[in-house]
Amino acid sequence: MNEILDGLVLELRRGVLILGVLSQLDQKEYGYSLIQKLQDHHFEIEAGTLYPLLRRLEKQGLLESSWELIDNRQRRYYQISEEGKQLYTALKKEYHSLHSMMHQLMQGEEQ
Amino acid sequence: MNLIKIYVSEVVKYLPSQIKEEVKRELTSQIMDMVEESEGDEKAIQSILEVMGSPKDLSDRYLNKEKSLIGPRYYDTYIMILRIVMFALALAFTVIFAMKLIFSQAITGWTILEYPLSLFNAAIMGFAYVTIIFVFIERNQVKIEDEDLVTKKWSVSDLPKESVELPTHRLENIFEIGFVSILMFIINFQPQIIGIYSSVANGSQTAWTVTPILNHATRNIWILWVNVWLISMLISGVIKSIYRLKAKNRIFLSTFFDFLALVLFLFIIATQNMFVDNIAGLIAPGNEAFELLVNRGSFTLLVVILTISMFDILRKLIKVLKQST
Asked: How much is the ipTM here?
């Protein structure tokens, strides 16, 4: 039972992963700082999942990236692109509508 | 730090050269950030790398690669065909074993032991063939569907003008796959049982002699082509069983493999010296009437097989052409 629940929770989280990542990239962040930022909001994501995802989103044109030397360290910084912002707004709208629909569905079930 | 270098090298090892250096640089920097946050000793590095996951898994995520060899679309059919092949093999080898017990002059321990050993060998070979065929279908079909999705959106007008039935029934496919599997494993493992069986009365006992039809002296030459021919037929049978393939593609592909099988069959008959010369003479020496009967009979059988195959291929091609226009 727990195994099934874990799998389903994982599926749910996977669905909102990109939304969570895009929401935190208004300002430029490097990989590890983004993980920490997400964790501050109790959004757990593994480094092995996030790093390839950042590259993929950049390839799709949703993020922009640049190498910068800060505090004597070379890091790749990511930030949401104009195209990414548009997609994020649309995705957020879809999420809210889905959330309210699910809320209604489940409330009906509880009554 | 050496551990990080090794880990990153293992990850990028599987990546295409265009992104290798970039990922190497970025991943190293990202891991270094994580190390800096921890105590930075060897143990901390180890636990960070363990959290990152195996290099192969991480590499797959960079490639965004599908991991399944045979995806859910074909999995059920794959299992079904694997069962048919395994059942056919078990059946064939049980019959062969029973025949050996009946026709052997002396039953040794080896005769008994040969049965499970041959069956095991054949099962591994059958499993490998079926899996390879499905991997081929899976990889190609995924590509075709992806191209369709990219180029245009599906609409009802894309449906064919009339429904196209499967060229053969499922039961026929089961028999076809089973028959080809049995033939394949008899030719590879027990070719000596293909022959003409005759009995000679020896006092109160009957002794059985087998006159082989296949030419064992040239086996090394023809065995490769015969296997290619049988695999073509097996692929055709498997394709016909995959219901979810688009009808036109399915008929076209199976027709192609049928045609290939026919060409290979003709090639083998014409050039490979697969059968023993003058088989009638070996069975009944000096009986010219019998020799003539066997020669004409085998020629007639060949013509009948060719005619049926050509007719079947043409029928399917016409169906494909009708659907295209």
From this structure: 0.82
